[in-house]
Amino acid sequence: MDLSKLPRLSKTETPPGDPTTTDATAGPIDPAQLPPAPATPVAAANFCANCGAPLRPGARFCDSCGVQLAGPSHNPGYAGSYSAGVTPGIGAEVWVSAIIGLVLMLLGRSFAGWAIATMTGRTYNTGATWTDGNLAGQPVAYWDLEGFVAWNDSALFLFGLAMALEALVLALVFTKFRAKVPLILVALGITLLATGYNLFVSAKLLTANTIPLMSMLAVAFGGYIAVYEWRLLQQFRAAPAHRG
């Protein structure tokens, strides 16, 4: 039986312009001549819809403009799922700030000893004595030590205290701790004080032809920390319902 003479019951037509088909007369089409495939849509970046600033994963507020975020679904580029109040990397930031702060406070511990002795009415013994002049044999006062010891110690200690308070803020800011705003205010005040004091010490030592490397670094990092703490303060003031 010749099946070629039977009517065709169905017909599947090739879509016009489909480059993947082969033409019996023209032969196979060279893949290099095919048009490029449509690009895969790129996931939207993890940016604030209000100001366009980059967002930290899991953040509840934009660090730039302070607008409240709706959560992971608000950020199209947000990958993964985190519990409320947990942000990746926050633990590392806390440890870095805490360790550097403690190291700086240890380096400037002489200033802490002098301050405690002064506040309690005692005399701080530097262990140094004058070797010439009318004061020969008498102990050298802390602020009279050569090499700007007191200035360097006090600058290091104050900035170390500011970094230790920043670590405390970072550790508590995403918890249910209720006194976040007062804590951030105290930390911000200490940061501004320490940064301003290091700026003063830098100027003083520069006029004495001494390069105050540590104080200059403290000024740079202090400005960054102050801006970060100020933004945190604005966020929690603008959203009292999220303070704890």
Which helices and strands, and how do they pair?
Elements: H1 90-107, H2 109-119, H3 149-172, H4 180-207, H5 213-238
Helix pairs in contact: 1-3, 2-3, 3-4, 3-5, 4-5
* Helical coverage, percent range: 40-55%
Percent in strands: under 5%
SSE order, one letter for each helix or strand:
HHHHH
Q: Return the structural class.
A: mainly alpha
The number of E-state strands comes to 0
Through-space gap between termini: 86 Å
Q: Are there runs of 5+ residues with pLDDT below 50, and where?
A: 39-45, 71-89
Question: Strand count, sense and closure of the main sheet?
Answer: none
Mean pLDDT: 76
Rounded radius of gyration (Å)? 33 Å
**Overall 3D geometry?**
elongated
Structure commentary:
The structure is a single chain. With 244 residues, this protein is mostly helical. It has two domains: 43-88, no CATH class; 89-242, no CATH class. Helices cover 44% and strands 0% of the residues. The longest helix has 28 residues, at 180-207. The protein is elongated.
Structure summarized in a few sentences:
This protein has 5 helices and no strands. By secondary structure, the protein is mainly α. α2 (109-119) packs across α3 (149-172), α3 runs antiparallel to α4 (180-207) and α3 (149-172) packs parallel to α5.
